[in-house]
Design a protein that fits this description.
The chain has 163 residues and is mainly α. The protein contains five helices and no strands. The chain folds into two domains: 77 residues, no CATH class; 82 residues.
Length: 163
Amino acid sequence: MRELTDYHNLTHVWANKITDDTTLSSLIEKVDFHAPEKVQKENFERFLQFLELNELDHIYRYDKPAPLDTVLEEMKLPELIRPINRLEINELADRLQGYEKRRADGLKRVKDKNKQYETNERKDKKKIKDLEKQNEDLKNALNKEESSFMHKVGNVFRKIDIK
């Protein structure tokens, strides 16, 4: 990971620089979030040279924009979300209320789903109980038929004169 961090100049703080006194605010003040941008052009040029040297086809060889760039230019992207520590108090309150509403809505959906599962479980248990009762009734009916049949067979044998 260190090699990638160094090569792309990724924003980072090494673990040995973090102490018990380190705060998020102090880290934010120390790091350069734009550092990767400073080497991106050079790294990209190096990447293109690699592709060319190895005779690999790529979209940057042609005089037309990359397909994804075209799609992104045509898109209307939403406004970036500002970090919570940069919000005015009224914006912060609105955002937290929105979070709370989404949390409450999510909790309600989970409770409703649980209630639905419980209702279905009760219905399924009743169906099982009804089927078990039906099965028991059929067993009893079969036993009566079997008994009646055996009684008739016995009568037939009694009528036959076996000597």
